[in-house]
Specification:
By secondary structure, the protein is α+β, with helices and mostly antiparallel strands. Helix content is 35%, strand content 20%. The protein has two domains: 89 residues, no CATH class; 193 residues, BirA Bifunctional Protein, domain 2. The protein has eleven helices and ten strands. Strand 7 and strand 8 form a beta hairpin. The protein is rod-shaped and about 125 Å long. About 2% of the residues have low confidence. Bound molecules: 3,4-dihydroxyphenylalanine.
Length: 347
């Protein structure tokens, strides 16, 4: 009999080592310590023993019961192995489980990088309205009302009943950051080296357009500013942002607010500049920016004397530039604003 109790104890303790969670512990307890469990069954047999034997085996039986009861208690309050927690014990020495952590949106990361790149050459970030009057968005930029050049900017107009209803007072969601040009000139502090990074809105949506996007507008106004300075700044930015090996080109273009004007294309990173089956670019180049020497009429609109000062200005799309970062291979701009964590978590 004594031997049977010893055996049961051994078996129970072995079984206890492989009980890994609270459910398994409860099952073990019922099996060995329950009212109809293995120990209870064995104890029932004590009744059949002689008084002499009972005196000997009784205390052993009780000791086994006590030992098994203690064993399960210890296991219940013990820390477990980190993956499971028998008895839901809590080990303060285990490394914590980190709660999910977010990060800045890739476009915000790009904006911060752009701000940083320009601050290194003395261009400070300026902020100008994202809802502005027609005057700053178009007219002051040498684009009178009804000028066909305006058609390029698929502009959202805002109903503004409280506004004096002259054409130039109409409100628009800024279709480009160029509205900041005359606003910056009007501050009257020269020289100017600013970069205005803001949201822009246009009624367009396809692989290379979203209705809300960002641009950064660089403006440099001083005596003797030339097109060479503009080229140097383009080259500096492209090499800093895309790396020194990225090929780009300046293509003659026309804007009402710059003369001469260019557009800036970079070699498309999605198709490595081949243009083959590329759903994003045309013939291997993606247009990122427009720029040029500020038109004398724009300087005048901002109260700056074009005989004394010259200036350059340029505007880049932030999202498009970001998509062209080496190796990203983002071939549809709209993915940036789908809020798909499978995409966003990669940045
Ligand atoms: N605002 C133009 C656009 O959105 C880009 C641009 C062209 C900005 C020439 C400039 C500039 O400052 O000088 O397409």
């Amino acid at each position: 009999m004594q031997h049977q109790f010893e055996q049961l104890k051994k078996e129970a303790l072995v079984a206890l080592t492989s009980a890994r969670d609270a459910d398994a512990l409860r099952a073990w307890e019922i099996l060995y310590l329950g009212r109809k469990g293995k120990l209870a069954q064995l104890m029932e047999k004590l009744g059949t023993l002689s008084v002499e034997e009972k005196k000997k085996v009784g205390p052993i039986a009780n000791a086994v019961k006590q030992e098994l009861t203690q064993a399960i208690e210890v296991k219940r309050t013990s820390p477990g192995d980190g993956r499971s927690s028998p008895g839901d014990g809590f080990d303060t020495t285990l490394p914590g489980v980190r709660p999910p952590q977010g990060h800045l949106h890739p476009v915000t990361q790009a904006i911060q990088e752009i701000e940083d790149i320009f601050s290194r050459i003395g261009f400070h970030r300026a902020r100008h309205p994202e809802v502005d009057t027609d005057w700053y968005a178009f007219e002051s930029l040498n684009m009178p009302a009804d000028h066909p050049a305006r058609d390029e900017w698929e502009t959202y107009f805002i109903e503004s009943p409280n506004h004096r209803n002259t054409e130039s007072q109409k409100l628009v969601l800024t279709p480009h950051t160029s509205n900041g040009q005359v606003r910056e000139l009007e501050k009257g502090k020269l020289p100017i080296r600013m970069v205005n990074i803001s949201k822009c809105y246009r009624r367009q949506s396809d692989v290379s357009h979203v209705p809300m996007f960002h641009q950064f507008e660089g403006v440099y106004v001083d005596e003797h500013v030339t097109f060479q300075h503009l080229k140097g700044v383009f080259e500096y930015f492209i090499h800093e942002f895309f790396g020194p090996k990225r090929t780009y080109r300046l293509r003659p273009f026309h804007f009402r607010f710059t003369e001469p004007s260019v557009e800036v294309d970079v070699q498309c990173d999605v198709c490595n500049g081949t243009g083959k089956n590329c759903r994003l670019c045309k013939n291997g180049w993606l247009e990122l920016a427009g720029g040029g020497m500020m038109h004398p009429n724009v300087l005048k609109a901002g109260g700056v004397d074009p005989k004394k000062y010259t200036a350059f200005a340029f505007g880049f799309g932030v999202e498009r530039s970001y998509m062209m970062k080496s190796g990203l291979k983002v071939d549809d701009i709209r993915i940036l604003y789908k809020n798909d964590l499978r995409f966003l978590e990669q940045f």
